[in-house]
Predict the structure.
Amino acid sequence: MELVRLLLVVAHIIGLSLIIGPFLFQVSRKSHFDTKLMQIGALTQLVTGLALVGVREADDLAVDHVKIGVKLVVTVLAVVTVFLAARKQKAADAGRAAPKSPLPFFHSTGALAVLNVFIAVLWT
Ligand code: HEM
């Protein structure tokens, strides 16, 4: 079970890099956002995070439920904002929305992911 937990932690770290990497790469853009990897990353964080809680509970390891609850809410918001960014980008590409319309959702997704890193590391 310990190996499963450690492999989930690896997947969790790769998931966070899939959100924050593409976010930083495109952060200076005003339009034309590619959010595909960020969508995969946000969903990865949701799935691996919940799996980590399950594995920790099963192994009788400590779980701070308030911290996990906050991280869960932040992650759900990141999932929502990244899919809204993708939808707005599609509309902008089709000429049905302003080119800059995905920008606030794109920035929110990156900010929420960075917020969760702070919560994960600083909330002890
Ligand atoms: C964008 C979303 C997320 C980010 C950026 C993130 C980030 C991190 C980071 C950096 C760590 C390592 C912290 C350390 O070892 O000091 C961690 C661990 C952990 N995260 Fe997340 N997380 C996210 C979402 C979630 C969600 C949604 C859950 C659960 C619902 C969750 C549950 C956990 C658990 C249980 C651990 C401890 C793993 C262990 O060492 O056994 N995370 N997270």
